[in-house]
Amino acid sequence: MKLTVWTYEGPPHVGAMRVATAMRGLHYVLHAPQGDTYADLLFTMIERRDHRPPVSYTTFEGRDLGADTAGIFRDTCRAAYDRFLPQAMIVGASCTAELIQDDPGGLAETMGLPIPVIPLELPSYQRKENFGTDETFFQIVKALAKPMPRSAEVSVNLLGPLALGFRHRDDIEEIKHLLAQMGIAVNVVAPFGATPEDIARLGAAHANILMYPEHAEAAARHLERVCGQPYTKTVPIGVGATHDFVNELAQICGIEPKIDTARLRQPWWSKSVDSTYLTGKRVFLFGDATHVQAAARIARDEMGFEVVGLGCYNREFARPIRALAKEFGLEALISDDYLAVEQAIEEAAPEMILGTQMERHIGKRLGIPCAVISAPVHVQDFPARYSPQMGWEGANVIFDTWIHPLVMGLEEHLLTMFREDFEFHDDAGASHHGGKAVAPSAPAPEVQERGLETGSDVMVWLACAEKELKKIPFFVRGKAKRNTEKFAAERGVTEISVDTLYEAKAHYAR
Amino acid sequence: MNTPAPIRAQSCANAPVLKERGQREVFCGLTGIIWLHRKMQDAFFLVVGSRTCAHLLQSAAGVMIFAEPRFGTAILEETDLAGMADANEELDREVARLLARRPDIKQLFLVGSCPSEVIKLDLARAAERLTVQHAPHVRVLNYSGSGIETTFTQGEDACLAAMVPVLRNSTARELVLVGALPDVVEDQAISLLRAMGIGPIRVLPSARAENAPEIGEHTVFACFQPFLGETTAALERRGAQRIRAPFPFGEEGTTLWLRAIADEFGVDDATFARVTDAPRARARKAIENASTALHGKSVFFMPDSQLEIPLARFLTRECGMEAIEIGAPYIHRDLVGPDLDMIPEGPQISEGQDVDLQLDRVRAARPDLTVCGLGLANPLEAEGLSTKWAIELVFTPVHFYEQAGDLAGLFSRPLRRRAILEQGAAR
Ligand code: SF4
Ligand code: SF4
After folding, report:
1. Helix and strand tally (H, E) in chain A?
2. In this structure, is residue B407 part of a structural domain?
3. ipTM for the whole predicted complex goes beyond 0.90
């Protein structure tokens, strides 16, 4: 038993719903109590979908438990088939139905429906949403896709985009642009927009593009084994990764890489002098493994940030994330406990968080700006405009998104110069975030009796040093405080004076 | 007093009820925690359930609106399912840890879920055991919010009903108002009644455990909400007397609700008029302003919060709407009878749900406004039907005079918006 308040991932059957809802011509019969129908609103409200998810719930009640819940399941299956006439069906249990052990797969099989019925085993008490997406898509592919002759022209499948994904809709378009430049055709995109008949055609492609390992790695591996299709390992998020992706794909397909970066603005935007202020910004990365991995590379190599912490919530990818963290000289945080994430962020005292909607709230609490890079998503993560993460346009979008929460170049200097100014004061935040500007708060009593809290019981900030620290603009104060304490600790200094502060500043100057 | 005399023959009182049992598209009772924990400021709601339950709470609340919520889910894991003894020990440990971290908590609700009920985890026993362990500082109670036993607002009912047996005894003649309403509305109700000389007045649930009402044979109570059937029964078992009235939605409902209480306490007509005349006039004016877009329009209620019948009464009688179907997850005749009596005959009354069949009826009738859950709203809008999300009706202050205009506004806004956008597109 584990006490949980906010979760990064829902139960695995929600993952199955994300696959089913992304597809067409597929229906999901879910053995579940009525309250589990809440999951529909994730799709209709957060993603603004204009159709109900293709899910029929059995909504059995307490009084049915001793009686015939299996009968209710059969009736629901039959009614769903008659009404929706899907090309294929997936069937399974939610956490409650798992306990009553009706075996939806077995029941559906005996019904003799004239379509493929694919049973799902999603252990609700062990696994989570991303397992549900990957496993469901794998089972569908395993059941429907068979080896077949390759298409005459070079073609690929796009695997992984689904419902409630972070910018999946637009990433598909961006990948299609890249492929068009190389003269590679798209055979099938799945699950997004695919029908079961499309899944049956997967084998015609020459290779697979694994867009999101979280959702389609098992399927890609299966297709490699059964249909002999190689798949791409690079996720094209960021300029460097997109170049690598194009090269990898060209090699897989045996063609020349072709790259047209006419629309790519990110590198110049990053080089131009206004971006100098981004140098060495300390960032903390948290999200799903795929997006964190991509973000780490962009942050260090393309934005010139310093990555001071990173991790992911999906344990399935703990290995690669640990390896990545090591490369950055860090210890990875693998956790789905948002309190642990909050604590790690607080300790790292970054100048910016690149995270999920959960970290956005943590950032709000700690007063640290945050940009969202990964699911779990919120209604804001489904903008009306074209806003991919992948490919060249994705790189442009990411540049804009990441600098938006920050104080801009010249403004940073103004803040330093006029730190007591009525408009550029600490509490105002970045000037382009109108809503955040507030009147300067009354000067707090400057001298605290026991000095500033340092998180250590032996180190104390003298009043004068603390006062000096407050003169440092808010967006670098966290760094200054941390560096000073580190500097003091390394030298066994227990009282931080103004001198300690400036010695540390000189020490860390760059 | 111009109490409209219900003419039974022409009302919905005896209308046949269409009972359906198929797929339901409704929340479970856990959802009530979202507003209950705001109301009871020293209570913590600990759901003993699955990741699904935690995810429901998070989704229903909108992602993380509250930084430091007083609710959480003890998620059952594979090991808990293996042996009962373990689950109880684990629960005790989680509760001890929680209470140590939150010394502000005075009441702890163990909330049962489908998984905890299917594995027959005895939360009543657990609550007794934990009450002893954490006495006198914390009282531990339990109720079911599970989807196999409760629908949406029944969770609040189950919670309040669980509190009744432990309320202290009283011999005083006191008025208790029952239901968790936003403070602003609760205060309005109390001040109106006080102005008529009625008192003392207590509220269940109170914001803090120490102010909980006392109950006895001389207690009279009135419900704010139509879904409090179990709570009503529990109070009646303690000897308290219920005041029967339509529910306080709109000017008419509010007046009749207040009048019934006033009658019970022997308030004369002059006093009643002095207290209510001005707010009644304000409410009428506000409804008039907010309901122009509703006149002559049709409305279809999908079952959701059990507020459907009183709201249909308000919309048909005060806003000039015509009801096509009034669906409720559960019809508690004893409570909603007075409202049902007042709805002119015509609409189909339905109880329970078979969502696909019901949507067929919506599509056939093409109502001007469909009141439904969040899962159905956008899909219906995409079919060209205007909708009102039912959940807003339990999340926003809509009871009593000063909110009557807002209540009409909640229904008219979708219609006004559609009209504005259609006009704009035609320009
Ligand atoms: S219906 Fe049951 S399992 Fe589902 S969220 Fe509600 S209590 Fe939990
Ligand atoms: S406005 Fe900018 S800083 Fe604020 S929450 Fe949005 S992205 Fe983050």
Report:
1. 20, 15
2. yes
3. yes
